[in-house]
Amino acid sequence: MYDLIIIGAGSAGLSSAIYARRFLMKTLVIGELIGGLITTTHLVENWPGEKRITGIDLMKKIEGHARAFDAEIINDRVVSVNKSSDGFIVKTADKSFKSKTLVFATGTVHRKLGVPGEKEFSGRGVSYCATCDGMFFKDKIVGVVGGSDSAAKEALLLSEYAKKVYIIYRRAKIRAEPVNVKRVEAKVKQGKIEIINNTNVVEVKGDKKLTHVVFDNGKEFPLDGLFIEIGLVPQNDLAKSIGVKLNDKGEIIIDRYSRTNVKGVYAAGDCADAPFKQAITGSAEGVIASFSAYDLINS
């Protein structure tokens, strides 16, 4: 019997584990991707104490910190969660674990465009990760769909490889953080980036690989690659299965103590309903979740 099982091994989950072990709770972390989605981020420039660090290197440090406190970390997928008379039962494909309390730090997955050709050309020109695939488009012409800060950062990274990067956005103006807007504008002046506003991609076409996309004005636009960065979808089916309340965005509803509506169940990070989603805020929620679980067990 564990005191705490944390489902998800990103910044929120691993930070939760660090503090759970500091509270001397018997702790297990189960995650499919150790380090979480931030490991696909090229540069992190807003983590206190680290002016510039890759997502992978940051998460290696946090994972190492958790392991130094003897947190048990398993690289696996949780397939079900159920309530029991004395807590919760968490199952993977071939193992079962019991715990007094739970933290959901299950994070998010990339939102899909949902247009014809997207699925067919995934991995053949369509990508959701510039850090992973950018080097394959050296001296090519690529597009980035989206206008968020993440989309701007994807475009900036791709501009280091590609001959030309087009940001394709459905609104009149991209909404990145001011520092990244300035960086994009500098690349626009250099001719490396061009912004196509008030435009949607409605179809992806090609032969053996992507060759062009179709805009909502009917225009066919030639591209070698298309990177989709239009937001994230929370992974909360497991939480929902035990009665945890979600909002209309599918996010877990938590209070300032990271508590859900189910006693003994907490949530942290991008899967929760905090409006500002950053690694640092998710880590803080994970820490608070561990304290709340510790407080409950000791009461």
What does this structure look like?
By secondary structure, the chain is an alpha/beta fold. The protein folds into two domains: 2-110 and 232-298, FAD/NAD(P)-binding domain, CATH 3.50.50.60; 126-228, FAD/NAD(P)-binding domain (3-Layer(bba) Sandwich). It has seven helices and 17 strands. The strands form four sheets. Strands 1, 2, 3, 4, 5, 6 and 17 form a seven-stranded mixed beta sheet that branches. It has a five-stranded parallel beta sheet with strand order 8-15-9-10-11. It has a three-stranded antiparallel beta sheet with strand order 12-13-14, with no helix packed on it. Strand 10, helix 5 and strand 11 (193-196) form a beta-alpha-beta unit. Helix 1 packs parallel to helix 7 (279-298) and helix 4 packs parallel to helix 5. The model has no long low-confidence stretch (mean pLDDT 97).
- The termini sit apart by 18 Å
Give a short account of the largest sheet.
Answer: 7 strands, mixed
Mean pLDDT: 97
Q: Which structural class fits the helix and strand makeup?
A: alpha/beta
Low-confidence runs (pLDDT<50, min 5 residues)?
none
Radius of gyration: 21 Å
What is the CATH class designation of the largest domain?
Answer: Alpha Beta
One letter per element, helices H and strands E, the order comes to EHEHEEEEEEHEHEHEEEEEEHEH
CATH architecture of the largest domain: 3-Layer(bba) Sandwich
Quick one: how many beta strands? Answer: 17
**CATH level-3 fold name of the largest domain:** FAD/NAD(P)-binding domain
Percent strand: 25-35%
Tell me the name of the CATH homologous superfamily of the largest domain: FAD/NAD(P)-binding domain
How many domains make up the 3D coordinates? 2
Shape: elongated
- Please estimate the helix content: 25-40%
Number of H- or I-type helical stretches: 7
